[in-house]
Amino acid sequence: MKIYDVISSIEFKNNSTVVFDIDGTLITNSGNGIKVTLDIYNYFLSKGIRPYIVTARVNERNIINITQSQLEKAGITGYSGIYFRPYYMNIREFKERSREDITYKRNAKIEMTFGDKNWDYTGKYSGIGVKISKLKIWDILIFHLV
To answer: pTM of this prediction?
Structure first.
């Protein structure tokens, strides 16, 4: 099944959203955009769905500035919000709590989550999880349905 077939099978509502990880999902470790997921990200924007970004990057001013610069350089704009991890919190707990916050405090229904690590796309508040895998080039998506 192709990614756009999965997306088109979802009945998106006014409060529907999607969640993306950054590293290995939207951008490479060198800060370049990953075309396949950027296309999907922009597809959601074109349909009026403003994604959230949940990153394991630490919530420190210099890291936030670098991250925002990398996202802008890659053309990643229009997101509803971005969550940075407190340095003391483990990644799995942070990702789950962030998605819970999006669900209850932002009153959004997470339909899909995209990421390259298990904690990015699994858990109670994940919707359909999509694992992004890299082979030789960044163009392979492997689905993990939650």
So the answer is: 0.91
Query: Which DSSP letter does residue 27 get?
Result: B
What are 11-67's pLDDT values in tens digits? Answer: 999 999 999 999 999 998 888 898 889 999 999 999 999 999 999 999 999 999 999
CA separation for the pair 90, 70 (Å, rounded): 24
Task: Spell out the residues 6+ positions from residue 84 whose beta carbon is closer than 8 angstroms to its own.
Answer: 55, 57, 58, 59, 60, 63, 64, 67
CB proximity list for 38: less than 8 A, separation 6 or greater? 26, 74, 75, 76
Q: What is the pLDDT of residues 99-125, one digit of tens each?
A: 999 999 999 999 999 999 999 999 999
**Full set of structural domains in the chain with CATH:** 3-7+18-143 (3.40.50.1000)
